[in-house]
Amino acid sequence: MIQIDDLQLAAALLNGTSLTAAARALDVTPPALSIRLRKLEATLGVTLASRTARRLSLTAEGERFARDASAMLAQLDSLCDSLRQDARQLTGTLRVSAPFGYGRQHIAPLIAEFARAHPALRLELELRETPWPDRHDADAIIHIGAVRDSSWIARTLASNERWLCASPAYLRTHGVPRTPRDVVRHSCICIRENNEDVTLWHVRPRSAGRGQRRAEQETLRIAPAYSTNDGVVARQWAEEGLGLVLRSEWDAAEAVSAGRLVRVLADWEFDSAPIVMLVPTRIGRTARVQALIEFLEDRIGKQAPSRGRPAAKRTPTRR
């Protein structure tokens, strides 16, 4: 007979990349987990995984069993949550994954606030370079930018424009871009993240209508003078006068307000990077995940830069 431990084992194998990682998630030793896996395969009469010294891969049957096991565990959690609703107390473990910069600056303080409101809940926050689509066992994922090929549901928490910025000193020395085509003649700082083509920038007039915007859209191929996989580093380089940077509004707004950066081409709109929360399908969604959704939609919606955006500073003229 299949036990809950068997379901937890299968779910751990789905989220882990090795037997060691799965064993760590279940707090057992790899040899003990290997024995449990062989026993489960004997019970089911199928091979669930192929393993080498370094990697574990689920078979088609193993993938199906693991996904069904994860769904069943989620339903059990949901049942327990529903029985506790009268007490209005959230319990269990809630795992959240977010990008390093935005997660550290915005999500971590909100998770602390959420934890204070639900003291019986165990919260785990994991900051990753690419929280999506890396495989892990998060219950909710904060992602910045477009999401493609996802079986999870994306909830937009806030809009997030990308602003083209440079330091006042850089603009005084090198001049101010007046049109998008001027940008390619400048030193540009690129951020390599989310497997995007970061040297291809799309820009359109902000005030144009929908059809006109498509007609007037321009595509710029940037030859970056500097590149990094860290957005905060890219912004700091721009503040130090190295060049133009296309940065998320959530990160650039404070520097623009303080005068360390100046927003250029403000009448043009670059591709946005909305802040979204990815959660599993509604079937089997736990009460703690639903509570987190409602909490973050309320808090991030109120603090979104676009709702109280600082006025764009005037662009200095070349001297």
From TrEMBL:
> In this protein, which residues make up the domain named HTH lysR-type?
2-59
Assigned keywords, A-Z = DNA-binding, Transcription, Transcription regulation
Quote the InterPro entries the UniProt record gives: LysR-type_TF_proteobact-type (IPR058163), LysR_HTH_N (IPR000847), LysR_subst-bd (IPR005119), WH-like_DNA-bd_sf (IPR036388), WH_DNA-bd_sf (IPR036390)
Spell out the molecular function terms from Gene Ontology.
Answer: DNA binding; DNA-binding transcription factor activity
Matches recorded under Pfam families? HTH_1 (PF00126), LysR_substrate (PF03466)
UniProt-listed Gene3D superfamilies: 3.40.190.290, Winged helix-like DNA-binding domain superfamily/Winged helix DNA-binding domain (1.10.10.10)
Annotated family: Belongs to the LysR transcriptional regulatory family.
* Name of the protein described by the UniProt record: LysR family transcriptional regulator
Q: Which organism is it from?
A: Bordetella genomosp. 8
